[in-house]
Amino acid sequence: MKIFSSEQLYEADKITTEKQEIASIELMERAATQIFSWLHERMQGAQVPIHIFCGIGNNGGDGLAVGRLLIESGYNVTMYVVNCSDKRSKNFLINYDRVKNVTKSWPLLMTSEEDFPDIADEDIIIDAIFGIGLNRCPGGWVKKLIQYLNGKKAFKLAIDIPSGLYANEPMDDVEAVLKANHTLTFQSPKMAFFLPETGVFVPYFEVLNIGLDEEFILSQEPLAQLIEKPEAQRFYKQRQKYDHKGTYGHALIVAGSYGKIGAAFLSAKSVLRAGAGLVSCFIPECGYAIIQSSLPEAMVITDKEDDLITDIKINFTPSAIGIGMGIGTNKETVAALEKLLKETKSPLVIDADGLNCLAENKSLLKLLPKNTVLTPHLGELERLVGKWKNDYDRIKKTKSFAKKYGAVMVVKGANTMTVFEDKIYINTTGNPGMATAGSGDVLTGLITGLLSQGYDPLLASVFAVYLHGSAGNIASQEISFEAVMASDIVDRIGLAFIELFAQDPMPLSEPKE
Ligand SMILES: NC(=O)C1=CN([C@@H]2O[C@H](COP(=O)(O)OP(=O)(O)OC[C@H]3O[C@@H](n4cnc5c(N)ncnc54)[C@H](O)[C@@H]3O)[C@@H](O)[C@H]2O)[C@@H](O)CC1
Ligand SMILES: Nc1ncnc2c1ncn2[C@@H]1O[C@H](COP(=O)(O)OP(=O)(O)O)[C@@H](O)[C@H]1O
Ligand SMILES: [K+]
């Protein structure tokens, strides 16, 4: 699924009404009907009080239209107009009149704190105050209203976007955003849903297709591409009957130091689970017996030093190299990394201390072979690109870093974001159970394993991130978020491959047109 900007959505809206020869009020009715159906399917006529807070723009118009449809079906609805300005939109006014025609009374007008209504814990709040047309920070009593609603336990459903958030810009005031329980958004998820600062206001969302012009949508370069199951399925390369282990490459993992040999174990195991034909681990001498006995499928080459990596000597050309997990940032190790960067022709993934070595020795960055994959978490990213003002500034900095060094940047976290050239891919799998020691090592192994099988660096990264999150999801479903360890993730990579092509259970009801 593609993520579009608010500007693109307004344009799509305009082109759709022109091409389909419909009035924009009809598009609003489509949108409102979808929201009504969503609610009706779940509420089945229940007389739970529903409070709809409508702004004076088209988001408010949506709210009024939803309210009217609910009332016509016998629901217990109260509508409020959050009268923050006189500039009511045309479609707001049409729906305002329609409400009057159906209910024989006007919605309640709110102009100050005195108008805030009582809301019980069991009630439902619908937020139609501001949509993607928010153009300044909600202030005064409107901000207080948002805070008042946030203080209520009632279930909060936001239309299009929680009020106070911009679709694709940083928010102004964290205190002036509605904390929605669920958001029903039109046509395309918004960028704000996937970034840590703003995404907390959108714990769950669904996209409603309101039939905007397909041709226009397809012609647009999105802000980002969301990676869900259908996209991931297309990445998968089928194995052929006469393939042999040579077909899938001989990968190299360079990892570990005294006390951190586990990083080599986890990443090398992950390389094999990803499907590489062979894996060799280059580790300090002290890890030899550990890896040989814990992972007999892997071959082991050791450094001349007992507890550090100082000189990476190998006698084969790896099909891919994953380097950096638990290696430390010792001077000799940095020198070993520098030599490898200068000499290798293999596709490369650099993680963890490998990234810290680069950050502490920025002159090494210009040695990065083109298309090298870097997998920083936010701490490591900051050491590479410097401090950022907000999530959008971080994206900008990551993009320019990726361009400058020709790197594929895999920025890890919830909704891991892969950045390459001008493109952004946002992952949808994974869960907080994966915030555990070594889960990043497993990801590096997975990327290395896919590179080894001939996936190109960008594809290997985006696909590995998806599979890694999916393995984490399977693990947490089995044993809880808390109990997941990196070993559990690595051992479910196989199930993640199987899940990729598993049929989803039948939906409860047929999708609506
Ligand atoms: N294709 C689409 O994208 C469709 C969009 N629709 C709805 O239209 C919405 C966008 O509507 P609008 O462009 O009218 O914008 P909004 O309804 O989001 O709000 C903008 C209005 O509020 C005012 N305003 C903005 N920030 C304010 C603030 N901080 N304090 C006080 N007033 C403020 C603006 O001046 C403007 O009058 C979408 O979010 C969606 O809900 C739907 O009706 C259907 C189609
Ligand atoms: N809240 C979360 N939701 C989804 N994925 C997460 C979450 N927290 C961590 N992860 C994933 O877990 C991995 C953690 O990697 P990293 O921070 O490098 O850990 P380590 O250094 O311990 O291996 C990343 O792939 C990250 O995307
Ligand atoms: K809203």
TrEMBL record:
Cofactor note: Binds 1 potassium ion per subunit.
UniProt catalytic activity: (6S)-NADPHX + ADP = AMP + phosphate + NADPH + H(+); (6S)-NADHX + ADP = AMP + phosphate + NADH + H(+); (6R)-NADHX = (6S)-NADHX; (6R)-NADPHX = (6S)-NADPHX
Cofactor(s) listed: Mg(2+); K(+)
Entry's Gene Ontology BP terms: metabolite repair; nicotinamide nucleotide metabolic process
Keyword vocabulary terms for this entry: ATP-binding, Isomerase, Kinase, Lyase, Metal-binding, Multifunctional enzyme, NAD, NADP, Nucleotide-binding, Potassium, Transferase
Domain YjeF N-terminal, first and last residues per copy: 9-218
Molecular functions per Gene Ontology: ADP-dependent NAD(P)H-hydrate dehydratase activity; ATP binding; kinase activity; metal ion binding; NAD(P)HX epimerase activity
Residues binding K(+): 59, 127, 163
Domain YjeF C-terminal: 228-500
EC number in record: 4.2.1.136, 5.1.99.6
Record-listed AMP binding positions: 412-416, 440
Residues that hold (6S)-NADPHX according to the record: 58-62, 131-137, 160, 263, 326, 377, 441
Keyword Cell inner membrane applies: no
Gene3D superfamilies found in the cross-reference section: 3.40.1190.20, YjeF N-terminal domain
Pfam families the UniProt entry points to: Carb_kinase, YjeF_N
Family, per entry: In the N-terminal section; belongs to the NnrE/AIBP family. Belongs to the NnrE/AIBP family.
PANTHER family membership: ATP-DEPENDENT (S)-NAD(P)H-HYDRATE DEHYDRATASE, ATP-DEPENDENT (S)-NAD(P)H-HYDRATE DEHYDRATASE FAMILY MEMBER
Subunit relationships: Homotetramer.
Job of this protein: Catalyzes the dehydration of the S-form of NAD(P)HX at the expense of ADP, which is converted to AMP. Together with NAD(P)HX epimerase, which catalyzes the epimerization of the S- and R-forms, the enzyme allows the repair of both epimers of NAD(P)HX, a damaged form of NAD(P)H that is a result of enzymatic or heat-dependent hydration. Catalyzes the epimerization of the S- and R-forms of NAD(P)HX, a damaged form of NAD(P)H that is a result of enzymatic or heat-dependent hydration. This is a prerequisite for the S-specific NAD(P)H-hydrate dehydratase to allow the repair of both epimers of NAD(P)HX.
Protein name: Bifunctional NAD(P)H-hydrate repair enzyme
Record organism: Ulvibacter antarcticus
